[in-house]
């Protein structure tokens, strides 16, 4: 078997790795082994936190809803149960948007549900 010198390929992969870690601190931005480790961990955290972001937004929507509901004398849990019994198919994201940007429309929904 012929001898393969991997100088070009090694330089290319090293350059790609170091391009990904540009801006990292200390040896992570200059040393190939530390850079590889940093990329691996960054990918793991990115995956996990993409999942976490969904829960974070749901919590934000609930806080926004309960703030406006409290002003109208309703509890969040009671409001959600009333929505389900009246078969109003609006999710928390839409309700939070209405509460934030269109409070008059949201008050109409409260009136419809609380009848």
Could you outline the blueprint of secondary structure elements for this entry?
Blueprint lengths: L6 H14 L11 H40 L4 H10 L6 H10 L1 H12 L1
Helix pairs in contact: 1-2, 2-4, 4-5
Strand content: under 5%
Number of helical elements:
5
| Tally of strands | 0
Shape: rod-shaped
Q: Level of helix content?
A: over 70%
**Tally of distinct domains:** 1
**The CATH top-level class label:** Mainly Alpha
Largest sheet descriptor: none
Helix-strand makeup class: mainly alpha
What is the CATH architecture descriptor? Answer: Orthogonal Bundle
What does this protein look like?
The mean pLDDT is 94. With 115 residues, the protein is mostly helical. It contains five helices and no strands. The radius of gyration is 26 Å and the shape is rod-shaped. The chain has one domain: Ribosomal protein L20, C-terminal domain (c-terminal domain of poly(a) binding protein, Orthogonal Bundle), CATH 1.10.1900.20. It starts with 6 loop residues before the first helix and ends with a helix. Helices cover 75% and strands 0% of the residues. It holds the Pfam family Ribosomal_L20.
Summarize the structure.
This is Large ribosomal subunit protein bL20. The protein has 115 residues and is mainly alpha-helical.
Output the keywords:
115 residues, mainly alpha, c-terminal domain of poly(a) binding protein
